[in-house]
Design goal:
- By secondary structure, the protein is α+β, with helices and mostly antiparallel strands.
- The protein has two domains: about 1-35; about 35-175, 2-Layer Sandwich (Gyrase A, domain 2).
- It has helices spanning about 1-35, 100-110, 150-175, and strands at about 40-45, 55-60, 65-70, 75, 80-85, 90-95, 115-120, 125-130, 140-145.
């Protein structure tokens, strides 16, 4: 009987330890999920030519209505770098995309000169941050724009996007 009692205690201890590890991992990943940010670039479209489009309101002070493709062309999964550029009086966000994102931007901007790119971000709430006009074919994969967000919000967004970039690079190394 003593032997059986020890086996039960050992199994119970192992089950409790495993449960504790899983609970610890879940709480840590939940915290990371709260800190991450997303960014999505939706191209302006003609709603009569594109089947799946949505109308969005960009900018809070002077709202501008745009009809954009429902699906983003590029998103945080294509990001290589993100930074805040501060020139003293204003700040801008600089997004640098990987080769896949660069090719997508190059292809889409070639046929969209004069139209806008609506930028949606979630950090943690979803908001449309800007709508820069496409003035040239984007061949370098870099998008720079002035966001409808204060500097603290931009820092929160950038920190969250850096977490996503870091995690994507770790996942790439594992493959």
């Amino acid at each position: 009987m003593k032997f059986r009692f020890r086996v039960i205690n050992w199994n119970l201890a192992a089950a409790l330890a495993l449960g504790g590890l899983l609970a610890g991992c879940a709480s840590r990943s939940k915290k990371k999920d709260e800190e991450i940010s997303t960014i999505r670039l939706h191209f302006e479209v003609n709603p009569q030519l594109v089947r799946r489009s949505i109308e969005v309101s960009v900018l809070r002070a002077q709202p501008m209505k745009l009809t954009v493709a429902e699906e983003p062309l590029v998103h945080e999964g294509y990001l290589d770098e993100v930074a805040i550029i501060n020139d003293g009086s204003t700040h801008q966000l600089r997004l640098k995309f990987d080769d896949r994102g660069r090719r997508l931007l190059e292809t889409e901007t070639a046929g969209s000169l004069g139209k806008r790119i609506a930028v949606a971000a979630q950090f943690p709430d979803l908001r449309w941050l800007g709508a820069p006009v496409i003035t040239r074919i984007n061949t370098n994969g870099v998008v720079t724009f002035t966001p409808d967000a204060d500097l603290a919000e931009c820092r929160r967004l950038v920190d969250g996007l850096k977490l996503v970039i870091e995690q994507r690079k770790k996942d790439t190394w594992l493959k």
